[in-house]
Design goal:
The complex is a heterodimer of chains A (175) and B (325).
Chain A: E1 2-5, H1 7-25, E2 31-36, H2 40-55, E3 61-64, H3 73-76, E4 94-102, H4 106-118, E5 123-131, E6 143-147, E7 155-159, H5 161-164, E8 168-172
Parallel strand pairs in A: 2-3, 2-4, 4-5, 5-6
Antiparallel strand pairs in A: 1-8, 7-8
Chain B: H1 27-44, E1 58-63, H2 68-80, E2 84-89, H3 101-111, E3 115-120, H4 125-132, E4 137-142, H5 148-162, E5 169-173, H6 180-191, E6 195-199, E7 215-217, H7 220-224, E8 229-232, H8 248-255, H9 259-263, E9 270-272, H10 285-288, H11 295-314
Parallel strand pairs in B: 1-2, 1-3, 3-4, 5-6, 5-8, 6-7, 8-9
Helix pairs in contact in B: 1-5, 1-11, 2-11, 5-6, 5-11
Classes of the chains: A alpha/beta (175), B alpha/beta (325).
Chain lengths: 175, 325
């Protein structure tokens, strides 16, 4: 595994992403940060932390499990389900989806369906820590931490303190 | 591929390809089902909308014995996951015209169903069906043998109230002999480490009970003192062809859950019943309506547990119509 971003990089990127979200939204009004299970969840909490630091406002944040909305369960088998925890109604809010890696776009498609089942947000935005390309659907992120050109089969691993005990982004070229 | 009929020998070595008996599960399997049900509960109890997970899948309810509740519960569970449901019941079907069980199975297979939920008065019918069909089979109760989803929804309900069931004490009272619920329940509780005590009229205890790994008590009052849960079985008039106890009144006096009895239990102890209840026989109306009774909760939890079973059995299986890319 080749290290690409270290803990300080990740921290600076998250802070910038929080700034970008606030700038695009003209403040913190109506924001709801939803992290996609698994690593999007701590990222959403961190963004909420930076928003509080920058703007002095506590914005609600939660977790979204999109497994039940995936289109590849037939080939991948039943994945374990994790918590969907949405602290406030999505109706009329600006829902900011947060994920670690944007790749094919299929997870985000599932997330859009999952949010739609919860209600009718005013708009949905997407924040990712890493965009590694190779989209299979017409989906793009509104705010990207790091654009990372990769080959299709390469591995990109995001590690986060809350889950993995350390922060960092690593790549592995599969030959 | 449609029309795949597997040979009987292949039916046994497929963990969680079917759900026929709790005996086929280990502790991890049960925990996986309960954890999945926990996440599906908000969809089962309508706090969240249904999900598209099993869209395009066809679930067949093959009910060769009447059971409105269980069928409705499976029906709702499948629909909350967006599966299509077809109902095949014994009355008014070709079964009453003398079609063999095997031909019924082959017909369902040819119609392209993705899962068969089967309820039968004959013990072993689901296993037999599994030997004919490649599709997942879910046992919704067979004769005196097993009722796995009932046991799973019961332990799910207990776990939601009590947490880890290791070392918890569960008293099951009533007609153990004719009860597939009791059989499945004991096995599920033992997998989760609970202590089970059976209390029954001697005529309604199966001879093999010594091998079940449970305690047997003669007097209900003694067993209830330190119990965390008392589970009253239904007096099954339809399965009784002989006199197993003198009268309903006598049964209620010795083995019924009355306010007096239940008040002597621990303050946080639960009262459960698989339904439908014979109020005034195995449980009095006052007890059934008391805050200790979680009987209506069992019904809602049943939908979540059946959703979990359908999800785990079907989400990984290839569809009948096309191979996944």
């Amino acid at each position: 595994m080749t290290p690409l971003l270290d803990a300080d990089d990740v921290r600076r990127i998250c802070r910038r992403l929080a700034h970008e979200v606030l700038e695009a939204n003209h403040g913190a009004d109506g924001l709801l940060l939803l992290g996609i299970q698994t690593r999007g969840v701590p990222l959403a909490a961190r963004l909420a932390g930076f928003v509080a630091e920058i703007e002095g406002v506590e914005v609600p944040h939660g977790a979204l499990d999109v497994t039940l909305f995936r289109d590849d369960l037939g080939s991948r088998g039943p994945k374990p389900l994790t918590e969907t925890e949405v602290p406030v109604s999505v109706d009329g809010r600006t829902v900011v989806l947060v994920d670690d890696v944007l790749y094919t776009g299929r997870t985000i498609r599932a997330a859009l369906d999952a949010v739609s089942e919860l209600g009718r947000p005013e708009r949905i935005r997407l924040v990712v820590l890493v965009d590694r390309g190779h989209r299979e659907l017409p989906i793009r992120a509104d705010h990207v931490g790091k654009n990372l050109p990769t080959a299709y089969g390469d591995q990109v691993r995001v590690r986060l303190e809350e889950i993995d005990g350390e922060d960092g982004v690593f790549t592995e070229v599969v030959t | 591929m449609t029309g795949t009929v597997r040979d009987a020998t292949a039916a046994t070595d497929r963990p969680l390809r079917d759900l026929i008996s709790i005996e086929d599960l280990d502790t991890d399997d049960v925990t996986r089902i309960l954890d999945t049900a926990e996440q599906l509960l908000p969809i089962a109890d309508r706090r969240r909308n249904s999900v598209p997970t099993l869209r395009g899948r066809v679930v067949c309810n093959l009910f060769l014995e009447d059971s409105t509740r269980t069928r409705l519960s499976f029906d709702l569970a499948a629909k909350r996951l967006s599966a299509e449901v077809i109902n095949f019941s014994a009355s008014g079907s070709s079964v009453s015209k003398g079609e063999s069980f095997k031909d019924t199975a082959l017909t369902l297979d040819a119609m392209g169903v993705d899962c068969v939920v089967v309820r039968s008065r004959s013990s072993g019918a689901p296993l037999q069906l599994a030997s004919y069909l490649d599709t997942p089979i879910l046992n919704a109760g067979d004769g005196w043998h097993q009722h796995p989803t009932q046991a799973l929804l019961d332990v799910f309900t207990m776990r939601r109230h009590l947490g880890d069931l290791t070392g918890r004490r569960v008293v099951i009272v009533g007609d153990v002999l004719h009860s597939r619920v009791a059989r499945s329940e004991v096995q599920a509780l033992r997998l989760l480490g609970a202590h089970v005590t059976l209390v029954a009229p001697p005529t309604l205890l199966p001879p093999a009970v010594a091998g079940w790994g449970v305690g047997v008590a003669d007097r209900l009052d003694d067993a209830l003192v330190d119990a965390d849960v008392v589970y009253a079985l239904r007096v099954q008039r339809e399965r009784m062809h002989r006199a197993f106890f003198p009268s309903s009144r006598e049964y209620a006096r010795l083995w019924g859950l009355t306010v007096d009895r239940v008040e002597r239990m621990r303050p946080d102890a639960l009262v459960m019943h698989p339904g439908p209840m014979n109020r005034g026989v195995e449980i009095t109306g006052d007890v059934a309506d008391s805050p200790r009774a979680v009987i209506t909760e069992q019904v809602t939890n049943g939908i979540a547990v059946r959703m979990a079973c359908l999800y785990l059995l079907l989400a990984g299986a290839a569809t009948h119509t096309e191979e996944p890319r």
